[in-house]
Structure formats: structure tokens, C-alpha cells
Design goal:
The protein has 18 helices and no strands. With about 450 residues, the chain is an all-alpha fold. The radius of gyration is 23 Å and the shape is globular.
Length: about 450
């Protein structure tokens, strides 16, 4: 085994400053003062917003095609579209990490954005006189290709951030990226997608997105070239993809904090997918609101996430990463238990009417949803920071890809079974069970951390 993976790094491990790296300034202002990081962040913000805009536009495109053909397969067509985007991470994410660790990360990210632009340009070739099945297959193929090539971007971006900022700024850098990711979802999918498609038409939106991706390509190419000195070309030439994958899984198996970060990020993602799946039923059957009022619950959760990623940087400088994660997990479980008990009780005491949508039950549900968003940020950002800190330059992309593979595979469970369980046992019971499981995990993790700290002290 090569020397660079002999032992997981200590939490205090630091690296020499990279070109453009700054240190000693706190908050978002400090990391944005780093010009190289600023360009990487701008590329992420623009590309994520473009992607979320395209996600909305494609839903409209497929819906229009189905309506134009008067085919009764709208839900199936939309499901297949989502599936074509959701499956590539399961198949390609692990291998993507191996390729990124062996390559110039800057060129990888630039190449991905150029390939994304090419995929989006492919939608401009669609013609209304094409038969239904070939049209849908063409869209699904482009969507699958877009998602597949995109698997290289996450590991490359995540492993580049620690090369551009100091360790003291790393949690703020990750918080900023999480903030931008959440903001881009709201901006691209909720605002720009509907607005631009209605004002300019789908074809024009495709052209705008292609231009954005090409601009992001130039931003990435302007980054300083940071070359890893941990592995020589001769060493890379002797390694195999399967060997690299086995090596990184052994590396993760030896590091308790690394396993914990991957497990918690995966659990947070899966729990929120399950909650999102149950949210429409909770809104209609428990809160007794019309389906279109779902935004009353979802929007506070998004705002809470934004608040959390802003606040976590400040707490992260005073409280350990692992402590933040453990306590946020316990808080989430208590919020979910409250969700399962208080709103249903308030609905019985104060039934909603068409004139009064914001009943006590709805107001409490909105506050709890906001709390869920804040707490989720206190799991996601510290866990992402731990992934970067506990890995090395030579294997960081593979570690990140191991998380992406695990998370996307496990995410199939809530997508496939949350709705079924809600139908069988009721949404309130399912939420209560999730809350109890999360609480048990949080308590065990907190006690384990305290015992480990006590044994070291």
C-alpha cells in the first residue's frame, strides 16, 4: 500500500497554503476575499442555478410533449425523467472519485461544465414532429448523459476547496457552498425556471443555460493549478481502479470520524427525502389543508436551512464538528416527535376552515419545519468539513465519491418505501418511528463521543 494512505489524518492536520489561499479572517467575507475561492464559488453558484432551472424546464418540456400527443402516460414519463437523472450517481460516482484523484481537478471541472453545455445544446435539436417514444428516449438519454458526466464535478469541487482555503476557514467555505446550493434550488427551480420559460420560451432558456455553463468553464480554467505531490505518475500508472476503490474503503474503515460523517450525511439526506415524501400527505390528512398549501411547510424548512448554514460557521469555530453533529441529530429527533404529536392534537382542538388557513396547528408546523431546516444544516456542513479534513489530497475525491455512492444508493429506500409505509401505517406513526430511531442513534453517538473524549483526557 502506498505511503499516503497509511493512517487517517488527525483533525489538526494542516497543509501549506495554496496559491491565493488566505487565513486569519473569519466568516464569509474572509473566504470570499480569496480570489481563487471566489471564482470557484461563482462557478458553483451559476452552474447549480442553471441546473435547477433546467430541472424545471425539462419537467415542462416532457409535460408539453405528452399533452401535445394526448398520451395518458404523463406520470410515468415524469418518473422516468427523474429516474434518468437519479440513477447515474449509483453507477458512476465511485469510479468518478478514482478518476478525479488521478487528474487535474481544475481541468475535470472545466471539462464537466463544457460537457454539460453540450448536453443542454442537444435539447435545441428537438422537433415537434418527432414520434413520442423516440422523443422521450432522446430526452432521457441526454438527461442520463448530463447526470453521468456531472458525477465527476462533486468530488473535484469538494477536494479543491481545502486546497484553496485554510483549515480555519474550511467550515465557513463549506457553509457558503451549502448556502449557495440551497439558494440555487430556490432561485433556479422556483423563480427563474417558471419565469424564464413563460417569458422567453424553452428554446431560449436552453441557449441561456448553455452560455452560463460555458462561462463557468472559463471561471474554472482561471483557477490556479494546484498539483498534488503525494503520488508520482509512476505510482498512478501502476494502480488499478479496483485497487484504488478497495484502498479508499479500507481507509474509511480505519477512521471512526470519517465513517461517522458519511453515515450522518447519508442519514440526513435519507431522512429529509422521507419527510419530503410524506409532507404532501401530512399537509392534507393531518393539517387538513389543500395540496397547494404544501409550500406553507416546505418554505420554512428551506429558510431554516439558509439560516442554519449562515449560523453554523460561527458555532463551528467554537464547538467541535462531531459535537455539532451529535447534538443536531438529537434536536432533529425531538422536533420530529413534536411534529407527530402537537399538530395532530391542535387540529382536533382548532379545526381549520377555508377562511382561516393559518391555524395553531399550521403555525406550529411551520415553526417546526424551520427548526428542521436549521438542524439539518448543523449536520450537513460539519459532516462535509469532516470528510475533507479526515482525507488527504491523494484520496479526497475518492472519499467524497464513497459518500455520494452510499448516499444515493440509500436514498432509494425513502423514495421507494416512504409513501407505502405512510399509506399502510399513517404518516404520523411513520414520523414518530423515524423520530425514535434518530433519537436512539443520536444518544448512542453522543455517549460514544463523550466516552472517547474522557478516555483521551
Amino acid at each position: 500500500m502506498s505511503r499516503h494512505v497509511a493512517e487517517p489524518p488527525n483533525a489538526s492536520t494542516t497543509r501549506p497554503a495554496a496559491p491565493g489561499q488566505t487565513a486569519g479572517r473569519g466568516g464569509f467575507v474572509g473566504v470570499l476575499a480569496n480570489q481563487a475561492f471566489l471564482r470557484l464559488w461563482m462557478a458553483q453558484a451559476l452552474s447549480q442555478t442553471a441546473q435547477q432551472t433546467i430541472n424545471f424546464v425539462l419537467l415542462i418540456q416532457v409535460r408539453q410533449i405528452i399533452l401535445a400527443r394526448e398520451a395518458a402516460v404523463a406520470n410515468t414519463a415524469i418518473s422516468l425523467l427523474i429516474l434518468s437523472f437519479a440513477t447515474p450517481p449509483i453507477f458512476f460516482s465511485a469510479v468518478a472519485g478514482v478518476l478525479v484523484d488521478r487528474s487535474d481537478k481544475r481541468l475535470i471541472m472545466a471539462g464537466v461544465n463544457a460537457a454539460r453545455a453540450l448536453c443542454i445544446a442537444g435539447y435545441l435539436l428537438l422537433r415537434p414532429n418527432w414520434p413520442l417514444l423516440p422523443t422521450l428516449l432522446y430526452i432521457y438519454t441526454l438527461c442520463f448523459a448530463f447526470s453521468s458526466v456531472g458525477q465527476l464535478f462533486g468530488p473535484a469541487e469538494g477536494s479543491t476547496i481545502p486546497l484553496l482555503v485554510s483549515r480555519e476557514q474550511l467550515i465557513n467555505a463549506n457553509a457558503l457552498f451549502s448556502l449557495t446550493f440551497t439558494g440555487s434550488q430556490l432561485l433556479g427551480f422556483v423563480i427563474l425556471g417558471p419565469l424564464l420559460s413563460s417569458l422567453l420560451g424553452l428554446q431560449t432558456v436552453y441557449i441561456i443555460v448553455v452560455i452560463l455553463y460555458l462561462f463557468c468553464t472559463t471561471l474554472i480554467l482561471s483557477l490556479p493549478r494546484v498539483v498534488s505531490t503525494h503520488v508520482s505518475r509512476e505510482q498512478v500508472a501502476k494502480r488499478t481502479i479496483s485497487g484504488d476503490l478497495r484502498e479508499v474503503w479500507r481507509y474509511i474503515a480505519r477512521d471512526t470520524l470519517l465513517r461517522k460523517a458519511i453515515a450522518y450525511l447519508t442519514a440526513a439526506n435519507s431522512a429529509f427525502l422521507m419527510i419530503a415524501t410524506l409532507a404532501p400527505e401530512f399537509t392534507t390528512s393531518v393539517l387538513r389543508l389543500p395540496p397547494e398549501r404544501l409550500a406553507a411547510i416546505v418554505t420554512p424548512a428551506g429558510l431554516g436551512m439558509l439560516t442554519g448554514v449562515i449560523a453554523v460557521g460561527r458555532f463551528g469555530r467554537r464547538v467541535g464538528r462531531e459535537t455539532l453533529i451529535d447534538r443536531a441529530l438529537i434536536i432533529i429527533s425531538l422536533i420530529l416527535l413534536t411534529f407527530a404529536v402537537v399538530p395532530p392534537t391542535l387540529v382536533q382542538l382548532y379545526p381549520p376552515t377555508s377562511q382561516h388557513i393559518f391555524t395553531p396547528a399550521t403555525i406550529i408546523a411551520m415553526i417546526l419545519a424551520y427548526g428542521l431546516g436549521v438542524s439539518n444544516a448543523f449536520i450537513i456542513v460539519p459532516s462535509q468539513t469532516l470528510l475533507q479534513e479526515r482525507s488527504t489530497e491523494a484520496n479526497r475525491a475518492r472519499v467524497l465519491s464513497a459518500f455520494f455512492t452510499t448516499s444515493n444508493t440509500v436514498a432509494l429506500i425513502p423514495i421507494l418505501f416512504a409513501g407505502v409505509l405512510g399509506d399502510l401505517f399513517g404518516v404520523v406513526r411513520v414520523l414518530a418511528v423515524i423520530a425514535v430511531l434518530v433519537l436512539v442513534i443520536g444518544i448512542i453517538a453522543e455517549r460514544s463521543r463523550r466516552r472517547r473524549v474522557a478516555s483521551k483526557g
